[in-house]
Amino acid sequence: MIKVKRVYEPLEKDDGIRILVDRLWPRGIRRSQIDVWLKDVAPSDELRRWYNHEPDKWEEFKKRYFEELSRNPKVEILLQLIRKGNNVTLLYASKSPYNNAVALKEYLEKVLKV
Length: 114
Description:
- The protein is 37% helix and 14% strand.
- By secondary structure, the chain is α/β, with parallel strands linked by helices.
- The chain has one domain (2-112).
- A four-stranded parallel β-sheet has the order 1-4-2-3, with helices on one face.
């Protein structure tokens, strides 16, 4: 199962493996709150700056981000964890509901055909 939640939300038993998928480490978060930091699956700096969490750019952002992900070998790490039956929680810091973790979940589910 793939979950998505803000890194500042409380830990839950069913979070499984907690994976930070942001390029930047969030303020005030201890390393012990996160199991894996996969900053390399985050959008490129160029894409992140262009998007700037503007909702009207959401669909184009996802298209560009999915293209980046399709060429990113680090995505395989996530896919392996999920295929092993692990619960995985993708963590993000943004206050916006239009963020890379939500898009990443959508991408992973398409690849896995969930």
